[in-house]
Predict the structure.
Amino acid sequence: MAGMARISTTSDVFSAIAEPKRRVILEKLLVEQMSVTDLVDALQWTQPMVSKHLKVLKEVKLVAETKVGRFHYYRAQPDELRPIQDWIHRFEKYWGGALENLDSYLTDIKSRGDARE
């Protein structure tokens, strides 16, 4: 195995948001456009850590960068999460049934409770 190139584990949206710190950054950038300094201050993380995670988010297009003078501002691009939404959509039929069953169960419990009163 020596000499083999390491395969990037952050080459897609799924892998990029698997890291909790990147999800936190993405959530911050959904609210407002921020610079690295803004993120460092808001999150109390080191600048290299913020920059490392921003780089990954930019590579998968979840974050866009705008340069204004010497400042770089970052903003979330939530439309790029669509592959995750599409994938999750496949499972909704299973969740829907579970929720319907729960609703029936709760209605049944309530009606039994009403009958005792």
